[in-house]
Amino acid sequence: MRNEWIDVIDRDVVCADGLAGVYVEGHDIALFAVGNEIFATDNRCTHGEARLSDGFLLDDEIECPLHQGRFSVRSGMAMCAPVTGCIRTYPVKIEVGRVFLQFEAETSDASLQSGI
User: What is the largest CA-CA distance in the chain?
Assistant: First the structure.
């Protein structure tokens, strides 16, 4: 996989609703605005395959729109039932009002264990 930063969206678009979904280089990504920070995760719930960008952002947790399972947008950890698997997170940086993502080798987040 690539390790370069990829320009994906204007920061104001994410901040307007607190979340956004984008497709980048074959990845379905959810972006979340928490305070002055932007976080990026896979956009699919590990329980019901719903798009997390259609969910509800509660502080720094995203609630799946189907069955109300929640994930930390900071770490990708599953926070409550019915979700049991974690979601992958991605490095984010902001430059000149734009959100950039970096896709690294598939490693650490995929091996996370549930925090439930």
Answer: 39
